[in-house]
Write a structure and sequence with these properties.
It is elongated, with a radius of gyration of 20 Å. The longest helix is centred in the first third of the chain and has 14 residues, at about 10-25. It has 3 domains: about 10-60, Arc Repressor Mutant, subunit A; about 60-100, no CATH class; about 105-145, no CATH class. It has about 150 residues and is an all-alpha fold. The chain has helices at about 10-25, 30-35, 40-55, 60-75, 80-85, 90-100, 105-115, 125-140. This is Regulatory protein RecX. It is found in: Cytoplasm. InterPro entries: RecX_HTH_2nd, RecX_HTH_3rd, Regulatory_RecX, WH-like_DNA-bd_sf. Pfam families: RecX_HTH2, RecX_HTH3.
């Protein structure tokens, strides 16, 4: 039987947050949600998360950069990443700043993703072309990368 521990002390909340951060970066909002699911009160969890931010152990900027890097390596474009980061509670300005960074060549990534999925190249029939466009849109590449 799975026992559920209640996070009722600042030390237990911090320890649980540190355990989660040891596995991967988290956004502030994402970590708050996970702590609340584990039984921590919102106010107590926010206090501990603010301390982690002050200590430099929790950073939305670091999370955003790591997330964009990891997902772009798997072939996802800026539109999909923007939506996923928004769902994880990252500030819109931070998302836009990260996605606009010089280290991301979205057009090259779109070409790479397109040619991996469609090695035969661009389709000539409208139905097949529509399928290719839907795939690219699903992956997060909008019209500005349509020159694959």
């Amino acid at each position: 039987m799975l026992s559920r521990t209640v996070l009722d002390t600042p030390a237990s909340i911090r320890r649980s947050a540190m355990d989660l951060l040891a596995r991967r970066e988290h956004s502030y909002t994402e970590l708050l949600r996970k702590l609340r699911l584990r039984g921590a009160g919102t106010a107590e969890a926010e206090i501990e998360l603010d301390r982690l931010v002050d200590d430099g152990l929790l950073s939305d900027e670091r999370f955003c950069e790591a997330y964009v890097y990891a997902r772009s390596q798997r072939g996802y474009g800026p539109a999909k990443l923007r939506e996923e980061l928004r769902q994880r509670g990252v500030a819109e300005s931070l998302v836009e700043q990260t996605l606009a960074g010089d280290e991301w060549d979205w057009a090259a990534l779109a070409r790479q993703v397109f040619h991996k999925r469609f090695p035969e190249g661009e389709a000539s029939e409208p139905a097949a072309r529509a399928k290719q466009l839907r795939f690219m849109q699903y992956r997060g590449f909008s019209g500005f990368q349509a020159d694959w």
